[in-house]
Amino acid sequence: MPRIAERVTRIVGHGVRVAILPYESPLVPTRLHVSAGRAPGEGKDEDDGHRHVYRCALNVFLTWDDEEIERLLGAGGEVRFLRYLDAIAAKLDAWQGAREVDLATRSQAEPSVLFGGLDFEA
Q1: How does pLDDT run across 38-81, given as a tens digit for each residue?
Q2: How distant, in Å, are the alpha carbons of 88, 96, 122 from that of 91?
Q3: Contact by Cβ (8 Å): 54, 90
Q4: In the chain, what are the domain boundaries?
Q5: Which of 20, 57, 81, 107 would be a feasible disulfide site paired with 39, CB 3.0-4.6 Å?
Q6: What is the pTM of this model?
């Protein structure tokens, strides 16, 4: 997870917080939380230098499928994971288009968005 967090931080850039949230239970697995500021009109952070496309501030959670994580521990897992890290930028682009999230403007349509059950395919 730290390697994914570092890569996502590098991709999304300044003004976005990326945090690893620890495992709480089978219903609340380890997550990567990607967030930024407040929504337009919510106070001090509204002029963050970005023209917001959506009404809500960036607040995205990412989780990966347990079986996918276990596969990384098997033969070829490290090579597969490195390919995945190289593909994260393209994956983020695809995910945001599917869920009304705009990383560039640090905004999204819903207050919270979950990209869950992700795999490690490049």
Answers
A1: 644 544 444 455 567 899 999 999 999 988 888 888 899 999 99
A2: 5, 9, 8
A3: no
A4: 2-118
A5: 57
A6: 0.84
Q: What is the 3-state secondary structure (H, E, C) of 57-118?
A: ECEEEEEECHHHHHHHCCCCHHHHHHHHHHHHHHHHHHHHHHCCEECCCCEECCCCEEEEEE
AA identity, residue 49: G
Q: Over the stretch 21-39, which tens digit does the pLDDT of each residue have?
A: 999 998 899 999 999 976 4
Q: Any idea which residue has 């890569």 for tokens?
A: 7
* Cβ density class 83-106: b for 16+ within 10 Å, e for less: ebeeebeebbeebbeeeebbbebb
